[in-house]
Amino acid sequence: MLQQTQVKTVIPYWERWLRELPDLVALAGAHEQRLLKLWEGLGYYTRVRNLQRAAQHVLRVHAGIFPRDLAALLKLPGVGRYTAGAIASIAFNQPAPILDGNVMRVLTRLFAIAENPREKATNEGLWQLAGRLVESARLHSALIKKRSSLIFSGPHSALNQSLMELGATVCTPANPQCPRCPVRTHCAAHRENRIAELPNIAPRVVATRRKFYSFVVEHAGKLLVAQRPVGAVNAGLWEFPNLEIASWDSSPAVCLKQLLQITSRCQPCGEVTHSITRYRITQRVFRVIPKRLPHSARKLHWRSLEELHQLPFTAAHKRILAWARA
Ligand code: SF4
Fold first, then answer.
1. What does the domain layout of the chain look like in residue ranges?
2. ∠ CA 29-38-276, rounded to 5°
3. Which of 184, 193, 194, 197 is the pocket-test mutation for ligand 1 (most atoms within 8 Å of CB)?
4. For residue 139, how many C-alpha atoms fall within 13 Å in the half-sphere facing its CB?
5. Handedness of CA 237, 241, 244, 249 (dihedral sign)
6. What is the CA(155)–ligand 1 centre distance, in A?
7. What number does the ligand 1 atom closest to the CA of 198 have?
8. Mutational test site, ligand 1, from 110, 129, 191, max ligand atoms within 8 Å of CB
9. Atom of ligand 1 nearest to the CA of 176
10. pTM assigned to the model
11. CB 168 less than 6 A from any atom of ligand 1
């Protein structure tokens, strides 16, 4: 849940998840639509499918005992080098390295590494460096224990958590708080006054703006919805009929006709903006109450508000659903 998502967002999801799926058996056997509903709004839905496949793998291959070994963790669906290292070190105090954006920034500044940390050779060198640091934590166990405010679950666990926290709270991308940094005296970038130039990463890709018209089509107390197909982004989730447009000059009525072969007045009811990866998406939403239904609309799904409430929606369309109730 925490991949790409902040702790404060995750907490209510996590609490509900544990109430509804308290163990591996419950997760492994849960229906896909139930999982998607529990994950609704968190985004990156591949994570929840991988989580279920991982639970099934642990039951089948490890008799329900969660593996502690790095090689076994890497075989779990959805678990890559970073997640395996985080689980092995933080949960089980194994000397396994982690390298996320925060740790990468701390290490490139501490050791004044001028090369781009996302390039293959430099990135591998940073993994090796993180590995040596977490391995050596055993030697400094007593010191870490004395100074750490973390729950002390072992030196390797504490070292990795400290690196992540340092990057998240002190050694931030802009305006790092060097005067209160606990490793300031060891920091090459601070000593050489090179903090602003490290890490040496290319600027992020410029965001692309996309525009959509979405239609809340009502007929006989039901609303028209579609399920996203297998293989598409957000597969299995539900949404209102929508169409990407090139310009806001496009006529909603013409788009509605093109999408659903419905001729009707389109009443504007709001706008939803959201981001997916590098896309900044704006959806203009229209309420449509057609007098007659063409055959094409019958191929979609008509659901009552109560039924819609049970379905997992993408985050943007969940907001549209709130308007549909109004
Ligand atoms: S001294 Fe400054 S640049 Fe160096 S690790 Fe600490 S916060 Fe980061």
1. 98-202, 208-325
2. 120
3. 184
4. 5
5. negative
6. 22
7. 3
8. 110
9. 7
10. 0.78
11. no
At 181, the amino acid letter reads C
The residue whose CB lies within 8 Å of the most ligand 1 atoms, and thus the one to mutate among 105, 113, 178, is: 178
Choices 3.40.50.2300, 1.10.1670.10, 1.10.10.10, 3.40.630.10: CATH for 98-202 = 1.10.1670.10
Does residue 195 have its Cβ closer than 6 Å to ligand 1? yes
Structure tokens at 218: 């009502």
Distance separating alpha carbons of residues 278 and 152, to the nearest angstrom: 38
What is the pLDDT tens value at each position of the chain, 326 positions in all? 887 788 899 999 999 999 999 999 999 999 999 999 999 989 889 999 999 999 999 999 999 999 999 999 999 999 999 999 999 999 999 999 999 999 999 999 999 999 999 999 999 999 999 999 999 988 776 666 666 555 567 899 999 999 999 999 999 999 999 999 999 999 999 999 999 999 999 877 889 999 999 999 999 899 999 999 888 888 999 999 999 999 999 999 999 999 998 899 999 999 999 988 889 999 999 999 998 876 666 668 999 999 999 999 998 999 999 887 65
Distance from the alpha carbon of residue 82 to the mean position of ligand 1, in angstroms: 23
DSSP-derived letter for residue 5 is S
Q: Is the CB of 189 under 6 A from ligand 1?
A: yes
CATH of domain 208-325: 3.90.79.10
Q: Hey, what are 105's tokens?
A: 């920034």
How far is the C-alpha of 116 from the C-alpha of 299, rounded, in Å?
A: 51
Cβ 188 under 6 angstroms from ligand 1: no
